[in-house]
């Protein structure tokens, strides 16, 4: 409730020199993945620090460490000069660290006041919640933030996202949080709501809070942040004052890296146009997308998360409907209404999440492989098991699957072998176009290389591949041409000869070069 | 892994049934005589058929609580038809019962598929609606033995190759469901849609439609059992099979059909129903109050659920955890 009074200019300056939160030497690994390696971060009171990095750079892991959800393997954290350990989310809360997420984590069915004071509600003498005081305090906090228009008794459900953010901030104020983490807070806000959020951030700054602001949008970062820290591949690669650093410098820090693995050399034999998408639009997700995929080509799709790439591909693969535009495969116009239609036409979409959207754990390997091809393996209504096994054997052998039996539950296989089953499943439908959504997300380097080699083999056989990837080395290392999307629209299409990463990042982030 | 465990569970269930028979037979040898076991099987044939229908629905992560009401309604309509037009041949009545039942099931399925209402809510509603409809068509009156034709009553009491016709219905149903679930694209889609609906959608399976078909199937067998029930107990009333839906679900759960969907077999469901049958038949023989039967089958359900849960845990969720961490 009581924020440090920083009316004295001197103390403010001294406070600004000493970081309120300081992380150093923090490392965190997960099986097969090194998420953070020896990173440092400093947050200063009354300042906004922007945390910048590609997807997978380790930003979310860091936020989880700062809020007590993950424990670092190594490293130390200082808050106001004191070493602290945050074994639980509650410990972080008590130390005054609070996070405001993209999708706010509050309770829709509780009132605004209840949300603000959940867990630390004022009590009366009987130990029951003192509703009167709670409402009055809620109104007071909202008032100081200039959010007096929010009624403390409204159920949270009735508020828009922007107002929910205000409630989350009010909650942070009420626990006297000193460190406020904002993880892509603007992602689902309108332009006007973003302005309101920025006013609020200014207010938090004036209260001496240390703010960590995570965003992919450069204009916002330059608008609101004072400092920056850039992460790349789980390491801290640069920090400083934004006023002294250009956007291009930051982009360079984000992408510049040593090559960590060699992409397969291939001699693209590109044929004529196979898939033509013209003016494809969706009411809310993407608009006026036109591109051509040629035979034997790998077409990369790059953009920030939420640029509409997956949604576009799902429309092409029949999972969602487009509202306008045409899709032509070969010489035939197609309008797939279901995934089955698209598979029949020869377009398959391999979704991003293997566990949830790919393998069917509980079914044996051969049934996983034959699932999209059941029409082909049955005769007069009955499945022919011999045909199913033959299909499964052909494709799993080709992918060098390690399994003792094809009747084995796919859940008993390792992650890499499960991925092979998923790929076998799609290849068995004999597709002409295969759409891979983040094909190497979350798998180790060795498996990544195997997937890349395999992609090269597929196109060498004349298949056409569309690859959505948010990893720059992958998109640059594998694609023949690259489409960049931003906020549901196509920015441009590049030939991958001599293309540099910075051009792509600038296009995806909307920075004029 | 889950499949292998499930298979083992079916072996265990069969062993448990055999053990019960042996235990009772040690004191009352007549219990284990083939003729007696045949009677038990015959008595529980209707439950077996209903459990198979319920199994298909549960596999798609749904539940059909309206089966017993569907059975009562269809049984009433068939019995009234027989009373009014005794010349209508029994096979025609059976087809009629299955069609009406499938229609009521399709209504459930359509609400689940097209309106996205949770199955438990839909069928809890139609449980009452179909029971009420039975009252409406009959005006609350019963159809008694003397109103039914001899053929209507005697058809399922006939014998064929030394086995009662009613039992043949159950045997044919087991074979038909076995083929449906293991040898057709539909059966495979139902399993896939139950185990992992998201991945199934990407593989081109219409999960909503699979649920719809499952409800049609459970409705169809409810209709069939409507005829079998009223002709066996020689009465059609508004109270027929009241509360029986719980027995049907119990048979499935004991048979290892996972309420979470996607796991379970035809043999399991049939054995689950037989397990309840043996308990029901044995307890009066060894002079245990029939009220104990409820407690024992209740305990069996809980035991089955515990075994299910342990089986699934061993199935492993390692990959999911890895994907989350990355």
Largest interface: A-B, 44 and 35 residues
Question: What's the quaternary structure here?
Answer: heterodimer
Largest sheet entry of chain A? 6 strands, mixed
Q: Helix- and strand-based class of chain A? A: alpha/beta
- The number of distinct helices of chain A, counting runs of at least 4 residues, comes to 19
The description of the largest β-sheet of chain B is: 2 strands, antiparallel
CATH arch. level architecture of the largest domain in chain A? 3-Layer(aba) Sandwich
Radius of gyration of chain B: 20 Å
Q: What name goes with the CATH superfamily of the largest domain in chain A?
A: P-loop containing nucleotide triphosphate hydrolases
Low-confidence stretches of chain B: 313-326
User: Which structural class should the secondary elements of chain B be placed in?
Assistant: mainly alpha
- Helix and strand run of chain B: HHHHHHHEEHHHHHHHH
The end-to-end span of chain A amounts to 46 Å
Which strands sit side by side, in order, in the main sheet of chain B?
1-2
What is the CA-CA span between the terminal residues of chain B?
26 Å
What is the average per-residue confidence, as pLDDT of chain B, rounded to a whole number? 83
CATH class identity of the largest domain in chain A: Alpha Beta
What features would you describe in this structure?
- The complex is a heterodimer of chains A (513) and B (326).
- Chain A is an alpha/beta fold and 513 residues long.
- Chain A folds into 3 domains: 20-96 and 178-255, Rossmann fold (3-Layer(aba) Sandwich), CATH 3.40.50.300; 271-346 and 433-508, Rossmann fold (3-Layer(aba) Sandwich); 359-430, no CATH class.
- In chain A, 35% of the residues lie in helices and 24% in strands.
- Chain A has 19 helices and 22 strands.
- In chain A, the strands form 5 sheets. In chain A, strands 6-7-8-3-9-10 form a 6-stranded mixed beta sheet, with helices on both faces. In chain A, strands 16-19-20-13-21-22 form a 6-stranded mixed beta sheet, sandwiched between helices. In chain A, strands 2-1-4-5 form a 4-stranded antiparallel beta sheet, with helices on one face.
- In chain A, helix 9 crosses helix 19 (501-509) and helix 15 (385-398) crosses helix 16.
- Chain B has 326 residues and is mostly helical.
- Chain B has a domain at 46-252.
- Chain B has 15 helices and 2 strands.
- Chain B has helices spanning 2-27, 34-43, 45-59, 67-84, 90-114, 119-138, 150-154, 165-183, 185-195, 197-202, 207-233, 244-254, 266-285, 290-315, 318-325, and strands at 159-160, 163-164.
- Chain B has a two-stranded antiparallel ribbon with strand order 1-2.
- In chain B, helix 3 runs antiparallel to helix 11 (207-233), helix 8 crosses helix 9 and helix 9 crosses helix 11.
- Chain B is globular.
- The two termini of chain B are 26 Å apart.
- Residues 313-326 of chain B have low confidence and may be disordered.
- The chains are: A alpha/beta (513), B mainly alpha (326).
- At the A-B interface, helix 11, helix 12, strand 18 and helix 16 of A face helix 1, helix 8, helix 9, helix 10 and helix 15 of B.
